[in-house]
Amino acid sequence: MFKMLLWCLCWKNCIQFHLNLQLRSVSWCVLSGAEERKCLDLAGNATALNIKGSLQCIRGLSARDCMDKIKNGTADAASMSADDIYAAGLCHGLDLAAGESHNRVDGISYYVVAMARRSSSDLSLLEMHELSSCHPGIRTTVGWTVPIGYLVNTSQISVGEQCNFPKAVGNFFGYSCVPGVKDPQHDPRGNNPRNLCEACIGDENDRHICANNHRERHYGEAGALRCVAENLGDVAFVKHTTIFDNVDGNNQESWALDLELEDLKLLCPDGTDADLDEYERCHLAAVPTNAVVVRVEDKCRVWKYLERLQNAFGNATVGFGLFSSAGYGASDLLFSDATHHLQRVLGRYTSWLGPSYTTMLQAFECEGKIPYAFTLDLLMAACVHCSCSHYRVLLMTGFC
What we know:
Order of helices and strands: HEHEHEHEEEEHHEHEHEEEEHEHHHH
Largest sheet: 7 strands, mixed
Number of domains: 2
């Protein structure tokens, strides 16, 4: 009897030891060799300073794989972008422990704006039917998710029972440039409307028209701005910073040399317009910064550990820097290089994403059915009534 009690006591102590060890450590899911090296360096530096707890680095194959690892307990945390945060919360039941603050502005990474030529005096975002549009690309937050979400939420377009977003967008605009919209990857059936490429120009030899890369000269945010500057589009959807990067001599390409701030304006969601520097009030969505995804029960534990790491390495001018990727051959490792500090997220993930951005994402849920051509990451978040594990197949078929 005594031996049995002694065995039980030892077994209980052994279990408690492993539980305590698990509580003291945080395993971080990383996505590249460079990120893994920085993670290991952080772990070593934290150990050298006797920071309470320990850091383990777990290699993930993708953001989706990291979500799975966090959900099943193989990993505890990972830094993710806004689109992935939405998918992690909706499809996996995960939450946030901390979020990045850039330039002392809490939670905002950039604003998605609608930009037009100032000479187009009769334009309104509430009356865009049969006008022309310029998008950085298919499957982009700036060029697709936010502007199309806005059009759905304002009842300007309806996707119908098939949830065919490209068809609805093609029927709405007169012509557009949406680079990549006709690629087999995004148009497996070859049915996406051709007018979504009619404002594209390809390269100097008129090849690669509508390509999802820089061979299409209207690709990307600078390309979308160029599309409007060259009078091939009425409105361009870009980040607010894109405009300032390409006007008043900041871009030396021929199309931008004479482009000035006063040549352009913002179109506001309420149908009015505004000057370019009024983006904080005149935007389609405020896209949140990256945040640390965790299991709900680990919000406090992971934050406490991150707080200790931030106190030690957050403002380092020499040695290891928590928010610096210098020396690793890549950028934005573990955290965005633009991060000023981490802040605790006390509410749910939706509070971090914010109402304007979340509303745009919800437009793609299409009453619980799978969208026809949705961003690969956000597709997971739309499978309200379907198995999220099949999202790659669903992307190709467009059906539950």
